């Protein structure tokens, strides 16, 4: 505060208030249907940097016609990647480019920064082991069926269905992909264009900004063109043994082992014993190869994924929200 003295006594004047964001207050208006996200992303460093990747009118148009899917390590081990790509192409999402990368705990928390507050401690204990179990594949997708004006990312979010398996429908993409449980769901996608801006910037730290800029400028896929994601997927699968991701079968295989995980499988073979497994996870290294996926199959089947009564900081934006905004 500053003070001046006049005949009538001291007069105070409010000091100037410093801005808290260098991002224009309208920057995200056309990229999200959620007012809370507009405000939050103006303060988010990754969203701010992501805007620099999409400055030209053609780049902004890209955010409506294009989106991405991440094939996670469980998709590679469970051999669901080819099925995912088949179904996406069948529904009009054509792969443009693909690049492998590996999650680490920091990237995981930053990608899901606005949802991780609702994650259970059990999920937090398991997710780094899952996402760190091998490479993931980032696949850029062009939407060839934008008939209702929705951005490609919003149409894919609506088609993907609920994250909770108990809320799934038969035609949800996650169901068609053969989702096993709340963590073995094989894919991650961006909810809407604002999330494309933010998350592609985060992923570009792993894939390289030059690769992303080249992919953004690439020509749309033509009928008959070779899928750029499939050869990448074949290479990833060559280094990872196929796994059934079946909890019961995994328990049987683990019970035949003579290590701490075999002891657990024999002594604590029910979901009520999950705390014993989580305690071991904090102290004992996961086995290598297929046995690692045996342990993860058990844990992902038994844990609770979310804290009861805790909502994410930013909820998923729906196609209905976008239609109301139009």
Task: Summarize it.
With 326 residues, this protein is of the alpha+beta class. 46% of the residues lie in helices and 11% in strands.
In words, what does this structure look like?
The protein has 326 residues and is an alpha+beta fold. It has two domains: 35-241, Nucleoside diphosphate kinase-like domain (Alpha-Beta Plaits), CATH 3.30.70.141; 247-302, no CATH class. Helix content is 46%, strand content 11%. It contains 17 helices and six strands. The strands form two sheets. The protein has a four-stranded antiparallel beta sheet with strand order 4-5-3-6, with helices on both faces. It has a two-stranded antiparallel ribbon with strand order 1-2. The relative contact order is 0.17.
SSE diagram, text form:
Layout: E1 2-6, E2 9-13, H1 35-41, H2 45-53, H3 57-65, E3 66-71, H4 73-77, H5 81-90, E4 93-101, H6 105-111, H7 121-131, E5 136-143, H8 152-160, H9 173-176, E6 187-189, H10 193-207, H11 209-216, H12 230-238, H13 247-255, H14 260-267, H15 274-283, H16 290-302, H17 319-325
Antiparallel strand pairs: 1-2, 3-5, 3-6, 4-5
Helix pairs in contact: 2-10, 10-11, 13-14, 13-16
């Amino acid at each position: 505060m500053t003070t001046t003295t006049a005949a009538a006594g001291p007069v105070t004047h409010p000091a100037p208030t410093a801005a808290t964001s260098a991002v224009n207050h309208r920057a995200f208006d056309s990229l999200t249907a959620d007012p809370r996200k507009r405000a939050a992303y103006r303060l988010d460093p990754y969203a701010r940097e992501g805007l620099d990747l999409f400055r030209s009118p053609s780049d902004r148009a890209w955010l409506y016609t294009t989106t991405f899917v991440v094939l996670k390590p469980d998709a590679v081990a469970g051999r669901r990647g080819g099925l995912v790509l088949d179904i996406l192409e069948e529904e009009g999402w054509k792969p443009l480019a693909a690049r492998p990368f590996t999650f680490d705990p920091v990237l995981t928390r930053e990608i899901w920064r606005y949802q991780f507050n609702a994650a259970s401690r059990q999920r937090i204990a398991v997710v780094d082991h899952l996402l760190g179990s091998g490479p993931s594949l980032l696949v850029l997708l062009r939407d060839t069926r934008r008939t209702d004006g929705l951005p490609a990312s919003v149409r894919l979010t609506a088609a993907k269905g609920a994250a909770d398996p108990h809320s799934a429908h038969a035609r949800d993409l996650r169901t068609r992909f053969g989702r096993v449980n709340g963590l073995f769901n094989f894919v991650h996608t961006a909810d809407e264009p604002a999330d494309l801006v933010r998350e592609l910037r985060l992923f570009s730290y792993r894939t390289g900004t030059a690769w992303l800029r080249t992919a953004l400028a690439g020509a749309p896929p033509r009928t008959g063109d070779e899928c750029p994601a499939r050869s990448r997927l074949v290479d990833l699968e060559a280094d990872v043994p196929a796994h059934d991701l079946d909890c019961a079968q995994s328990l049987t295989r683990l019970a035949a082992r003579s290590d701490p995980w075999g002891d657990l499988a024999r002594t604590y073979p029910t979901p009520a014993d999950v705390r014993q497994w989580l305690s071991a996870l904090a102290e004992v290294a996961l086995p290598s190869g297929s046995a690692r996926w045996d342990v993860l199959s058990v844990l992902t089947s038994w844990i609770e994924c979310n804290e009861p009564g805790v909502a994410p900081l930013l909820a998923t934006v729906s196609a209905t929200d976008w239609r109301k905004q139009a």
